[in-house]
Amino acid sequence: MNPNYPGSTQGQMPPTGYGAPGMNPGQMRPRGPGPMNNPGYGAPPKPGPGQYGMPPASNGPQYPNMGPPGNVPGKPPVSMHNNMAPGLPPQARPSPMMPPSSSRGMSGPMPRQGMPPPTSSSTGMPPQSRPGFPPAPSTGAHQSPPSGMTMTDRYGQGPPSGPPSGPSMMSPSGPGSFPPPPGPGNFPQGNQAGPGQFPPQPGQTPPGQFPPQPGQAPPGQMPPQPGQPRYPGGTMPGQSFPPNYPGGQPMSGPGGMQQPAGPKKLDPDQMPSPYNPPIVNLGETGPVRCKRCKAYMNPNMMFIDGGRRFQCVFCGAATDVPAEYFAHLDHTGRRIDTYDRPELCLGSYEFVATKDYCKNGALPNAPAFIFMIDVSYNSIKSGLVHLICERLKEDILVNLPKEVGQEESEVRVGFVTYAKEIHFYNVKGNLAQPQMLVVSDLNDVFVPLLDGFLVKLSESEAVIDSLLSQIPEMFAESRETETVLGPVIQAGLDALKSADRSGKLYIFHTSLPIAEAPGKLKNRDDRKLLGTEKEKTILTPQNNFYTKLGQDCVGVGCSVDLFLFPNAYVDVATISEVCRLTGGNLYKYSYFQADLDGERFLEDLKYNVMNQSAFDAILRVRASTGIRAVDFLGNFYMSNTTDVEMAAVDREQSMNVEIKHDDKLNEADGAFIQVAVLYTSVGGQRRLRIHNLALNCCTQMADLFRNTELDTLINYMAKHAVRTSLNSNPKQVREGIMSQVAQILACYRKNCSTPAPMGQLILPESMKLLPLYSNCVVKSDALQGGSEISTDDRSFLMLKLNSMDVSSTQVFFYPRLIPMHDLESHGDRIPAAIRCSVERLRDNGVYLLENGLSMFLWIGHNVEPQWVQKVFSVQSAAQIDIDKCKLNDLDNPVSQKLRDAINSIRGERCRYMKLTIVRQRDKLEPWFNHFLVEDKGNNGSASYVDFLRHIYGEIRNLLS
Predict the structure, then answer these.
(1) What is the spatial distance between Cα 371 and Cα 587, in angstroms, rounded to a whole number?
(2) Which residues of 197-220 are buried (b: 16+ CB within 10 A; e: fewer)?
(3) Ranges for all domains in the chain classified under CATH 3.40.20.10
(4) pLDDT tens digits for 941-957?
(5) Is 619 helix (H, G, I), strand (E, B) or coil?
(6) Of 634, 638, 608, 598, whose CA–CA distance to 620 is shortest?
(7) Is it the case that residue 304 has pLDDT exceeding 80?
(8) How far is CA 5 from the centre of its chain?
(9) Domain with CATH 2.30.30.380 in the chain
């Protein structure tokens, strides 16, 4: 449920989504708004250039024989799907007449008033036969779009005019060459190496396209049009896989391939207005629901009996419409108020919940944030306490989250310090000075005060400022080296419970909790066990204390965000359980120094506090007949098999849902999924956020492969491998991934491709990067331990990966490597990324590498002295101070562009990435080379070419 919804949606009507009722031939649109009235949610605007398939006037002519450029040595290969602008990531688009490659695909634009409705969708599909149901998938070969219709991407560029892009060959393509056309039987031919040829060697054009970077449309997806809302009547989760669900008899997917629904995106903070999901308040009656399965009203429900009842698309039951919700139907069978009600025309929306949806039948209070600061010797000596108190006062608390339209935040705040005792502070607004209350009995923790502990910032600002000024002075002479942690979390939990509020605990902790108290841990670190069969003994919790504590936190709606500042082992595998179960975040700053690491820590803290979150959340997935949710992956707690419980959810948290196909599906009816999240907003309002997804069903396995969402599949496989690694040895995990990849590709070769010699490696177009990404997963630090990584770092990465969304795992497994030595020639754009291989580095170049958590600036030893002078104010690369993690603010274009590019890339991530400067042939270069994932690893892990050979052999063994 990650809340990243970029994109502007001003003033244009979306095309009909899968879940939105379609327009039938001859159908008239309900009367639009009058001149003085605002249009409803579904009212169409006048089309502009680039809408309804018309290219913008600025595009210029499209020449019929103009194809995409051939691959240029040294640059990322150009996919036949992609039409790349200089410096921009490739933009993939589906071929005409194919079923949409994801639920982002829309059924077609709505007609303008006064014009007849279209008889086919923008992808050439027949009109929907039933309102609210998706069109049947096309199984035909590639066809041209209707005359005058051109699919356009977000930049207004039309698709390549050459032959359609089918599966490409595994051998290098010459300039202007195109992949073979689809073979007989409407099956794509597949990616082939020529007879007797093997996958390309390093330095040659790689198979298929370059791994997509964040911000671009995933392979096979049509980017949303500028200004168009993307989810009319059918929302898009993080990614859904596959958009064409296999019909017919149940199957577990090709070659055992699972069918996961990608991370659901919950928080709308990054969706520019008016794209925040509209809030629907139906008063005391509450949301309209199906009487049998309790599904919520959505655009796919069919109204019958003159609008007096509706038929549920999930269970088929007919439910009476409440009198206050009744509206007449038009001659098409659609309600006349469809476009005035978000729940009838949009895929994502919110309902205001009634008391029936609240604990104990009472509306909730606004949440609270409790800041709990370790004041032990290590924390004081590193400058952490002084830094926290200073910046909390200046620019953290003033950025507390608030509801849209509110002048001030309703979030309450409280403060605790601790080492071997716990100190509560009374900061009531009418006090002249804050008051400290000490709890020394850690075996029976209690909250010594209620009134004055959790306060509104605006009412106690002066007292809070005084407290934060005094804390560093009060503990300046502290010599306490032992700390507690379990009682601290218990104290915060009890404080929120006593105040009847949900909320967050911000805990700033420095060392292993070894003091005599509940939750005491022993040092069990043994890095040599990583990568062996015994590694699970140090990657799983050493006891269940923090697991039970996390479950108690979920029951109260108390999320725990841990900020760790260790100089030694702190047993992340054990204490992170409270973060995993409560939906909290874990941050780790090893060997923290305020002057070097302070900026990174403060940016992370500020981002976290400002972040819009949902509190005390419960999620349930409903699916139509024939499919059901069977497994969930992510950081949360489940007390039963259906409800996902999260004390808090923010944009860093995502989850995967595995959907099982266990009954025959009707290709004409489609498949439907609804995700409902009951939560408390930052303003204290109980709400229901609803996401709806409508999917096509298909009977041809080729359609399933054609529309597979690779990035979602990799995300799912990686999270599943993380869970498996806690119960199996690393070798079994790696072999399991490789076996699954080989089975998937062997299934495609056996069932979907045309006959070809066994010397050819054939891959489906949508999965031609599956071997590349799979090798990156196998080599990842989150799954493959060794002497290069500490036990705590391994546990930290496993926890982080378990909550990553699709775009984050893309760059985590295949980092971006960007040339930075020629920024001036690219204007305001960041240069295009190159392949992650040491062979792509030039000794007179400068390259930036980032994977969402780490950032490196690699500087060749022959880089131009003028460039070094302009950026670092020294004469040569050898004189650069690599201990600095911040570039000088120099007044010249080169320095300014480099800093702007770094800040822009940092702005794309949820975590602030510290810059590490690496000189060629320096001691830090092996660390940098570790992230060049196409090469052989320092620990002996396979290169991409070696992995491809291995998979090729596995496929041959399966087929022989």
Answers:
(1) 15
(2) ebbbeeeebbbbbbbbbbebbbbb
(3) 815-931
(4) 999 999 999 999 999 99
(5) strand
(6) 638
(7) yes
(8) 10
(9) 272-349
